[in-house]
Write a structure and sequence with these properties.
heterodimer; A: three-stranded antiparallel beta sheet; 2 helices; about 35% strand; B: about 240 residues; mainly alpha; Glutaredoxin; 11 helices
């Protein structure tokens, strides 16, 4: 998740990371990571990254940070629920994976190189 | 490339979602997408979201997802359907630099499990959860890529690198691409994407050069390149063999 500041809104954090901030902690699928403080409307990214073990890489010269994915269960997937995403097509129209619920989907990753 | 297969299976409740992993976005993907004239969603993934979310480490790879939104096969090599022609033919220059000849001789040695993969795909489309090729949630998780803290850190560096590249900060991007390569050595996409952004030669094959310039090899900013790295692991090990 790319960031231009380290204090962000709770919804932005949840949308960007796929983790939901609940009273019991940060939760994704069956996994919940307890947090020292109950989540409020804004998130201190540095602190929560430390508590959740998420890597945070800075590029201060360009005012950018990247918050990396979790490494909870030692696998890329913590759950078999297909993570939702939103990506644009050539025309810039946003497409959401979950819009295909009810069909079998083959996600095909390719590249022009 | 998969258009005919998709059209055949679509009436059975199957959809293909093609995702181009390319930091160059529309500029990089447009020619291929327009040539394919696909009726299925064809998306652009400039930051390699699919690497973060699904553990994609090479292309072409696929993930199978059922009607309830559950993954039944995690990211794995996805060969083109056996009856299809190869990727749209690029206009080959009359004189091919030796490096491209060498690249192609390695590429033809890369094993292909198209028959087994596509038999499994059709079986799953017909039988759904009863197909022996549909994995349980536990199997799906166990078969997904290893990811420790170093891998996660590498993903963060890669995402930062792609954004810096998009913003025109190429030197800063290279710095973070290098870290991503060091931390996630098994990702071919992390390397191929970075290599493809260096200008080795002009023309339609430029992005496949993926190595030092012939006339200025010392300017190459990366530890490896496509030919060196493939020869090091052996083309026969470039992709994991498909298993049910």
């Amino acid at each position: 998740m790319l960031l231009e500041k380290l204090k962000i809104g709770r919804k932005a954090f949840e949308d960007g990371t796929g983790w939901q901030l609940k009273p019991e902690g940060a939760c994704k699928g069956d996994v919940c990571i307890p947090l020292a403080k109950k989540p409020g409307r804004t998130v201190d990214v540095e602190r929560i990254a430390g508590e959740m073990g998420l890597p945070l890489v800075a590029e201060p010269a360009h005012g950018l940070w990247a918050l990396g994915p979790e490494s909870v269960g030692a696998r890329a997937l913590t759950s078999a629920e297909a993570p939702d995403f939103r990506l644009p097509d050539l025309a810039g129209r946003e497409f959401t994976l979950s819009s295909l619920r009810g069909q079998k989907v083959l996600l095909f990753a390719w590249a022009p190189y | 490339m998969w258009q005919a297969l998709r059209n055949e299976l679509h009436p059975k409740g199957f959809e293909l979602v093609a995702v181009g992993l390319d930091t160059q976005g529309n500029d990089g993907c447009r020619a291929f997408i327009e040539a394919a004239k696909a009726e299925h969603p064809s998306l652009i993934d400039r930051h390699h979201t699919l690497a973060n979310l699904y553990g994609v480490i090479n292309i072409p790879q696929s993930v199978w997802i059922d009607e309830r939104g559950m993954i039944v096969r995690p990211a794995e090599t996805a060969p083109a359907p056996p009856t299809e022609n190869r990727a749209p033919r690029l206009q080959m220059p009359a004189e091919l630099p030796p490096r491209f000849v060498e690249i192609m001789s390695e590429a033809v040695k890369i094993p292909n499990d198209a028959a087994a993969y596509h038999e499994a795909l059709r079986d799953w489309v017909d039988k759904g959860a009863k197909s022996r090729y549909a994995m349980s949630p536990e199997q799906v998780i166990a078969r997904s890529r290893p990811r420790d803290y170093d891998h996660a850190l590498g993903h963060a560096h890669f995402e930062l690198a792609t954004e810096l590249e998009i913003r025109g900060q190429h030197a800063a991007a290279v710095k973070h691409f290098r870290e991503a390569h060091r931390l996630v050595p098994e990702s071919w996409t992390f390397r191929r994407q970075a290599w493809s952004l260096e200008r080795g030669v002009e023309g339609p094959l430029a992005r496949f050069w993926q190595g030092p310039k012939a006339d200025d090899p010392k300017s190459w900013p990366y530890a490896g390149d496509w030919l060196t790295d493939v020869r090091k692991v052996g083309a026969e090990n470039y992709n994991e063999r498909w298993k049910p």
